[in-house]
TrEMBL record:
This is Thil AANH domain-containing protein. The lineage of its organism: unclassified sequences, metagenomes, ecological metagenomes. InterPro entries: Rossmann-like_a/b/a_fold. It comes from marine sediment metagenome. It holds the Pfam family tRNA_Me_trans.
Length: 106
């Protein structure tokens, strides 16, 4: 679309893969074209479960960051419900929790 600024929404775990995705997209979209979403999970998760690590990375790179806090309130209840009764169970890939990934995409 002419004149329309493109943006990318990146699910940012804080690990090398998601950081690399941000940097590759930055080459195409610029810093303002990147919006990162980090899910603070009750039991950790990913290699960088410390949200401050993710905050520092996004601040240093100039990315807008959205944090979904799943450690309390409505998001905690939804997350625990999904953990207790997973619909798809576990896959065989490197990050095997299919239900966790679907939870984040919803």
């Amino acid at each position: 679309m002419p004149g329309k600024k493109r943006k990318a929404l990146v699910l940012l775990s804080g690990g090398l893969d998601s950081r690399l995705v941000c940097k590759l997209l930055e080459d195409q979209l610029g810093k303002k074209g990147i919006e990162a979403v980090f899910f603070a999970l009750p039991f950790g998760g990913g290699c960088c479960s410390d949200r401050f690590c993710v905050i520092r990375f996004c601040q240093a790179q100039g990315y807008r960051l959205h944090i979904v806090d799943c450690t309390k309130g409505m998001w905690f209840r939804k997350y625990m419900s999904m953990i207790k009764s997973p619909q798809f169970q576990r896959g065989t890939a490197m990050n095997p929790c299919i239900d966790c990934h679907l939870f984040m995409l919803k």
